[in-house]
Design a protein that fits this description.
The chain is of the alpha+beta class and 168 residues long. It has 3 helices and 9 strands, in the order βαββαββαββββ.
Length: 168
């Protein structure tokens, strides 16, 4: 996962509030501290197997990529997942490059992962009515690291299992 830096996340949350009021959206905003970009999923586990975590950590440590700038500047409502997504321009393509490098490392290590269609985004809200796709204010930051987390489904929190820097 790529965590959104706190100042940027607070601005994203403010945008979500404006959109909620402006479109009278019914849904649950995702708290600023949980805003992120998902790279890959290792599946849904009640208890993540320690051996899986260790192999994933070792694989992630082999990913070598420089830090990069990412920009998100438009929203879309996704009816399938009932999410309001913040999407990026061409700089978000670097997120896909990182994802590909991580997927290759996991594959070499024999770590299973979900290889779903990938569209780099930050989910701002869940369970909403449709809002019109539009350009919004620009949210940019330098991605300096990525993390492996356990998403505690239903508890609204993440447990970090590892973090790796992307050198400048």
């Amino acid at each position: 996962m790529l965590r959104v830096p706190p100042p940027t996340a607070r601005r994203m949350s403010a945008l979500t509030g404006l959109l909620t009021r402006g479109y009278a959206l019914a849904g649950t905003p995702i708290p600023a501290q949980r805003l992120h970009v998902t790279l890959l999923s290792l599946g849904h586990h009640v208890d993540v197997p320690p051996a899986l975590v260790e192999r994933a950590r070792l694989a992630a440590a082999t990913v070598a990529m420089p830090a990069f700038e990412v920009t998100f500047n438009r929203i879309e409502a996704w009816s399938g997942s009932q999410a309001l997504a913040l999407l990026g321009d061409d700089t978000a393509a670097q997120v896909a490059v990182l994802r590909h490098a991580l997927a290759a490392a996991l594959q070499r290590a024999g770590v299973p992962y979900a290889n779903a269609l990938f569209n780099p985004h930050v989910s701002l809200m869940r369970g909403l009515a449709l809002a019109e796709a539009q350009t919004v204010e620009t949210f940019s930051w330098t991605v300096q690291d990525f993390a492996l987390v356990n998403s505690l489904t239903g508890h609204g929190r993440y447990v970090q299992l590892g973090q790796w820097p992307l050198p400048a």
